Amino acid sequence: MVVKVGLLGLGTVGTGTARILLDPLERHPLIQTVAIARVGVRSLDKPRQVTLPDEILTTDLDSIVTDESIQIVVELIGGLEPARSLILKAIAQGKHVVTANKAVIARYGDEIFTAANAAGVYVMLEAAVGGGIPVIQPLKQALGVNRIHAVTGIVNGTTNYILTRMQQEGGDFEPILADAQRLGYAEADPTADVDGLDGADKIAILASLAFGGRIKLSEVYCEGIRRVTAADIAYANRLGFVIKLLAIARRDVCPISNQHLDQLQVRVHPTLVPQGHPLASVNDVFNAILVEGDPIGQVMFFGPGAGSGPTASAVVSDILNVAATLHSNQGPTSVSTAPNPLLACIHQHYCQISPMATIVSRFYVRLLAKDAPGVIGKLGTCFGRHRVSLESVVQIGLQEDCAEIVIVSHEVKEADFQAALTEIGGYGEIKSVASVLRVL
Ligand SMILES: NC(=O)C1=CN([C@@H]2O[C@H](COP(=O)(O)OP(=O)(O)OC[C@H]3O[C@@H](n4cnc5c(N)ncnc54)[C@H](OP(=O)(O)O)[C@@H]3O)[C@@H](O)[C@H]2O)C=CC1
Ligand SMILES: N[C@@H](CC=O)C(=O)O
Ligand code: NA
Fold first, then answer.
1. 12 is in an annotated binding site
2. Average pLDDT across the chain, whole number
3. Superfamily of chain region 358-439
4. pTM value?
């Protein structure tokens, strides 16, 4: 039996996917049973880096998702529309879907999975998070027997590249972003990456799988790296930290019993990571996802989070998973009688997400203050009044006649810390609160 695939998109990932499918030697033998039947693109005139018969290329993507001979639609066009509508149409036609589109899944996952479950088809998304790194399937399968406590990831290669270069060169954000764009590491419009939106999409997806419920993207806290400065990276280094854009999903812990609770924290922000932490040495465009659970303990997935070949590896692994199911079902395109619960996403309730104000974490803050007697004492008193316990207060140097004061707190409630900071920001002696970052 040949499993026919309709590819939507023949760009970076689509080309990598076609390359693997057209060159099956020394790969899993099941690949030889998968055939590319149609390919949808925007322009038929563009030169392609893979050789396909002209007649299978079309700009009519609707005709692919409604083609009766196609069993799996692979959506690799990106963006929200027409990707969402094409996925829904494919599902309505009883086709399985493979996608790399985290933006669509994070926003419309509830609509898409509800439709897929009703139609008895699979929607597979290994490439959507961590590119080529297998992390979706492990969360659904091998790690599914664990009680997951936390998923912490560096899931955006662009920002990791920028932060790594800032760290290595001592440079500031803007010039390194411009250079990253020139070198093709960052997109012309870098918003989704540098403002943390891509990370938010990805952690929403990971949290949903790890904690078995749907996540409302609007409840994911998201802060990017635009305000991270060379000065903060240097101070962090002196204090024994590196700065990484972390995507974090973790169960809240009861402060009295220390037991894990049902509600989750789901957040993306630049974070001071201790230099000895496994995520601290993940540099350049690489991604890594640390999963913590019971009884597994800690397990970390590391590798290329993007790129044509690596991302296509994840896409084709999803195609193979569906093809294997179709083969073992002896050919029907629908598995409506008994979908494999280890491939499907069947949860329907929404996870409860804690507001940021209630979250407990450590903070790093850099202040510019008049170099006058009593300033540090005044800061300590204010933090104390707001139940903020300090781990270290260091006056490091002078900048424009102001003392630069770097403070690291113990674990405190976010609302208490922010209240103290608001009060401190109003003091006449404080010229500015230059940066506030969370500490892992
Ligand atoms: N690039 C990467 O490393 C990674 C990408 N992803 C995800 O994979 C998906 C694809 O990304 P990527 O391959 O980089 O994207 P590209 O921009 O390289 O390719 C997009 C492809 O889709 C086609 N296309 C786009 N819109 C339409 C449309 N409206 N009608 C018909 N064809 C259309 C384009 O056609 P044409 O060629 O004619 O212009 C092109 O072939 C995205 O969801 C992305 O987030 C995930 C992980 C990593
Ligand atoms: N823009 C993303 C790649 C795709 O997910 C990144 O920089 O990691
Ligand atoms: Na992946």
1. yes
2. 95
3. ACT domain (3.30.70.260)
4. 0.96
